[in-house]
Amino acid sequence: MGSEPGAGALFGAIEERAAEERARLIAEAESRVRAISAAAEAECARMKAEAMAALEHELAAEQQRLYGEARMKARAEGLAARRKLLAEAFLRAEKEIEARKAEPGYRPALTALAEEARAAVGEPCTVEVSAEDARVTATSADGRRRAENSLAGRLRRAQTAAEHLVAEHLFGGTGPRP
Questions:
Q1: pLDDT of residue 1 exceeding 50
Q2: Residues 6+ apart with CB under 8 A from 155
Q3: May I ask the CATH architecture of the domain 104-178?
Q4: What 3-state class would DSSP assign to 4?
Q5: How far, in Å, CA of 120 to CA of 146, rounded?
Q6: Is the Cα dihedral 67, 68, 72, 73 positive or negative?
Q7: What is the pTM of this model?
């Protein structure tokens, strides 16, 4: 008996089938690798897009916050400058009142203040005039009603009202008026 030709052919067929199976498995593995790689790339792209969108949202929010702060600061500084100008104007007005006491038109101003105080209290009343501090006080005969009228008092009330308007403009709302 010699060598069997069938054994070599059998080994050849097995090797051929093994090579085909190996090629099929390699092709399948490469296909899976490409699919996994594509899925990973897609997931990375999705995560990157989400991160970029979140970052853009955060940046936009921060930009709005900074813009709002800058607007509020500019508004507050502008209103502070207005308040300072108001205070300076009222200080000049106080000095002007003081300077006018020696002028001839001062006495008629006191008379007008006295008439306003008398009208506020009604008759009969007593009226006291203090030329030194430009103050007029009217008191009803029964002492129940009293009105004080002065240039300085009017100026203080005007200043308080102006400051209230500035504060209302700065902080909004309609708080109690002075």
A1: no
A2: 90, 93, 94, 97
A3: 2-Layer Sandwich (3.30)
A4: coil
A5: 8
A6: negative
A7: 0.46
CA–CA distance, 97 with 133 (Å, rounded to integer): 10
Residues 6 or more apart whose CB falls under 8 angstroms from that of 178 comprise: 157, 160, 161, 164
User: Which of 96, 93, 94, 134 minimizes the C-alpha distance to 114?
Assistant: 134
Q: What is the pLDDT of residues 114-166, one digit of tens each?
A: 888 888 888 888 888 877 767 788 888 888 888 888 777 788 888 888 877 77
CA distance 137 to 152: 13
- Give the residue-averaged pLDDT of 28-33: 95
Domains of the chain: which residue ranges? Answer: 9-100, 104-178
